[in-house]
Amino acid sequence: MASRNLFLLKVLFVIMVCTANAFAQNQFDNDVKANDEQPQTSQAEKFDEFGRLNECAKSARLDNLSISLQNDPTKTAHIIFYRTEDALPSQFNSDKYASNYLIQNRGIEPNRVTEIFGGFRETQMTELWLLPKGAESPKPSNTIAPPKLPKDKTYLYDRKLIELYDSNDLYLPQILARFEKIEQEADQIDATMALTKGNQDSTEKQNSIVSDEERESLRFGWTDENFARQIKTTKDARGVIIFYADDSTLDISKTHHFFQQGAERMTRAATLNVEQIQVVFGGFSNHEMRVEMFIVPKNGETPIATPEEKLTENESESEETENPE
């Protein structure tokens, strides 16, 4: 009798264990099914990031992003650009280089590319993100406090080299004559080649016609409306534009007028009195033309020009070798 009861207890124990295992497995299956039925949240993927690069290297990184976007039309690009705290005030935003490159050079639809200024970091950085459909855009991270603009001291707002476009009127007569001779020789070569190409050249020239508005925009591409706006929002402030030019090739009087026209464009856009921006010739520049823009508060000192010493022919050739375009 005792052995029979022991047997029944063993059977009951086995049944209980099996039932428990079956219940646990069933619960696990239900949990897995529930998780599968819940919508998975799409997440942004950091595709690449890089610091300061030359234009060629930067384009290569963006080309890789372009290929990924073309391979998956459902994804979009989100670009975050960070400046360093020593950036000039004119650079307190994204230069939009990356997004412009993807749209204009690689044909990515504008609605698939977003670029924002993420703020400031210890080092300049560009982050490239890929966003699946429904993913949230990543927020800027690891930022530092933005630099503070001085309230009572003169400061440099911007500096840049200027690429002259459609500005033959600024050159000295002998330099312009040399350019015209070169242009005539080029036209003769084009005319000879056109005989073998038929009407192809004339069609290309018609397609490359630039409007007066576009020409003006390119000619004054160095201007910055925000420079005038910054002057306007700073009580009793004025602006000083110091330009440097190669006076062996450029007519300084006409070049001064050119910069004065640029100042007028900026003040007109910001509804600022044109007399609040002064244009000054700062002296010689080895780079044909460069410009510095200063904000001068009420008690600020007038900025001092820093012209360059003219390089000898050997020094000029050496610089071109070290800094190829």
Task: Give the gist of this structure.
The chain is of the alpha/beta class and about 325 residues long.
Number of E-type strands:
8
What oligomeric state best describes the polypeptide chains here?
single chain
Gross morphology is globular
Relative strand content: 15-25%
Give the domain tally. 2
The percentage helix is 40-55%
Q: Give the end-to-end Cα distance, rounded to a whole number of Å.
A: 103 Å
CATH architecture of the largest domain: 2-Layer Sandwich
Q: Briefly note the structural class of the backbone.
A: alpha/beta
Radius of gyration: 33 Å
- Helix/strand order: HEHEHEEEHHHHEHEEH
Summed over residues and divided by their number, the pLDDT gives a mean of 83
Individual helix count = 9
Strand order of the largest sheet: 1-4-2-3
CATH class of the largest domain: Alpha Beta
Largest sheet: 4 strands, mixed
- Give the low-confidence spans: 203-207
The third-level CATH topology of the largest domain is: Dihydrodipicolinate Reductase, domain 2
Which key terms come to mind for this protein?
single chain; about 325 residues; Dihydrodipicolinate Reductase, domain 2; 2 domains; four-stranded mixed beta sheet; 9 helices; 8 strands; about 45% helix
List the helices and strands and how they pair.
Elements lengths: L1 H36 L7 E6 L4 H17 L4 E9 L12 H9 L7 E9 L3 E7 L23 E7 L11 H25 L2 H8 L4 H8 L5 H9 L4 E8 L6 H18 L7 E8 L4 E8 L16 H10 L3
Parallel strand pairs: 2-3, 6-7
Antiparallel strand pairs: 1-4, 2-4, 5-8, 6-8
Helix pairs in contact: 7-8
Overall description:
With 325 residues, the protein is of the alpha/beta class. The chain has two domains: 45-148, OmpA-like domain (60s Ribosomal Protein L30, Chain: A, 2-Layer Sandwich), CATH 3.30.1330.60; 157-199 and 217-310, Dihydrodipicolinate Reductase, domain 2 (2-Layer Sandwich), CATH 3.30.360. It has nine helices and eight strands. The chain has a four-stranded mixed β-sheet, with helices on one face. A four-stranded mixed β-sheet has the order 5-8-6-7. The protein is globular. Mean pLDDT is 83; it is low at 203-207.
